[in-house]
């Protein structure tokens, strides 16, 4: 038998120990085996395999630099049997983001709850009403409870998040983000479990705008109303910027309105704002609401402005029962589904993997594609139970 210490390369860090691997001599010494080839290459470069406590240790990086690693263990390896709820005893603070029971936040919450049921950690939930200041206050409260990990949005921005991230890791608390990334902090702490689960926000904004131009037959000179969160921190505001850039690159005129906090928390409160903007700009051909809750309220907004279904090409983000109903009725035309259930489930898994096994941060793009009238029936049943 031969023992190997397997390393992986990533742009976020130079090398990271992944697993101590045991292979039989009959396998790993065969010239056709990939680990034999990689080990032989290492021998040529370094002049031999180091011996530690009479075990051969090979630093295998060449074959793994551009691919994900699949752990292989021999049938005789001790403690290899799968176990249920293997994350019991781990304490996690999890942030669904919005108000309790609210659009999108509830899908994230359902992902958290399912992951806790599957894996076994104890999870405490903090609902923040989509308010960055409230989230920062709650983060400080969560640190005081001494959890093992915190699953957090990044829309308070890197300046507000940095001292809390540093304090958390200093106290042995794993931090990982969802929905809105903190790119520089993720790069700094990725080897300690800081990951990201969510869309690539700027790209998602550009993609939606360009798809709306194509499907809505929009032309240069047409006006588009963008109702977004350009002023928010992290890369959350970049999704709104992406929508604006996508329209402007197609020579559309953009009318922009920042979502106020009252509408951010309670989307129905924005009805008068929408009606007023549309009354002042009767030539608008397209609308984007860069907010899952506002997107789910599209039919209400259109009715408040006395606009018929289909009279404006209306796009937005995320899926909910109200969103799928608005698509079916024609008031809403196109949305990007970023699969918020996964944005809840996977951060819990991330923290458990890091706490139990020392795994580094995962980076997962959950932007699942477009939903419109042609495919909404496939998504609607899952939206009804707030999984999609």
- As residue ranges, the low-confidence spans are 1-77
Strand content: 15-25%
| Overall CATH class of the largest domain | Alpha Beta
Number of strands: 16
The helicity comes to 40-55%
Kindly report the CATH topology of the largest domain.
Rossmann fold
Gyration radius, in Å:
24 Å
**Mean pLDDT, rounded to whole units?**
84
The number of helices is: 15
Spatial order of strands in the largest sheet: 6-5-7-8-9-15
- Based on the coordinates given, report the CATH architecture of the largest domain: 3-Layer(aba) Sandwich
Number of discrete domains: 3
Largest sheet: 6 strands, parallel
Note the topology.
Elements: E1 2-10, E2 13-23, H1 25-28, H2 34-46, E3 50-52, E4 55-57, E5 91-94, H3 105-119, E6 122-125, H4 132-144, E7 149-153, H5 158-170, E8 174-178, H6 183-189, E9 196-198, H7 201-215, E10 223-228, H8 236-249, E11 253-258, H9 261-265, H10 271-280, E12 284-289, H11 292-296, H12 298-304, E13 313-317, H13 321-329, E14 334-336, H14 340-357, E15 363-365, E16 370-371, H15 376-384
Parallel strand pairs: 5-6, 5-7, 7-8, 8-9, 9-15, 10-11, 10-12, 12-13, 13-14
Antiparallel strand pairs: 1-2, 3-4, 14-16
């Amino acid at each position: 038998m031969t023992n190997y210490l397997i390393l992986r390369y990533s742009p976020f860090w130079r090398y990271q120990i992944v697993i101590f691997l045991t292979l039989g001599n009959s396998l790993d010494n065969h010239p056709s085996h990939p680990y034999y080839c990689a080990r032989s290459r290492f021998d040529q470069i370094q002049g031999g395999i180091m011996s530690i406590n009479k075990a051969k240790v090979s630093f295998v990086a060449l074959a793994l630099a551009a691919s994900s690693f699949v752990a292989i263990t021999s049938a005789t390896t001790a403690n290899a049997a799968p176990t249920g709820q293997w994350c019991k005893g781990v304490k996690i603070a999890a942030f669904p983001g919005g108000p309790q029971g609210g659009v999108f936040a509830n899908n994230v919450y359902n992902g958290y709850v399912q992951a806790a049921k599957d894996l076994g950690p104890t999870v405490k939930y903090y609902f923040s009403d989509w308010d960055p200041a409230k989230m920062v206050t709650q983060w400080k409260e969560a640190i005081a409870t001494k959890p093992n990990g915190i699953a957090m949005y990044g829309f308070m921005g890197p300046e507000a998040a940095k001292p809390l991230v540093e304090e958390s890791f200093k106290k042995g608390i794993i931090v990982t983000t969802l929905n809105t990334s903190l790119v520089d902090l993720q790069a700094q702490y990725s080897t300690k479990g800081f990951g990201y689960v969510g869309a690539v926000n700027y790209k998602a904004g550009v993609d939606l705008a360009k798809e709306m131009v194509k499907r809505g037959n929009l032309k240069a000179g047409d006006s588009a109303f963008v109702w977004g969160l350009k002023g928010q921190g992290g890369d959350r505001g970049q999704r709104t910027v992406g929508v604006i850039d996508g329209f402007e690159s197609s020579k559309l005129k953009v009318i922009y309105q920042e979502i106020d906090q009252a509408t951010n928390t309670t989307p129905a409160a924005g009805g008068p704002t929408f009606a007023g903007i549309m009354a002042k700009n009767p030539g608008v051909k397209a609308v984007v609401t860069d907010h899952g809750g506002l997107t789910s309220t599209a039919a209400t907004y259109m009715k408040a402005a006395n606009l018929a279904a289909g009279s404006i090409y209306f796009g937005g983000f995320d899926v909910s029962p109200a969103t799928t109903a608005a698509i079916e009725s024609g008031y809403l035309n196109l949305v990007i589904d970023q699969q918020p259930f996964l944005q809840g489930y996977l951060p819990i898994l991330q923290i458990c993997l890091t706490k139990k096994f020392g795994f580094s941060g995962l980076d997962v793009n959950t932007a699942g594609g477009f939903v419109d009238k042609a495919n909404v029936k496939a998504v609607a049943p899952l939206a009804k139970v707030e999984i999609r």
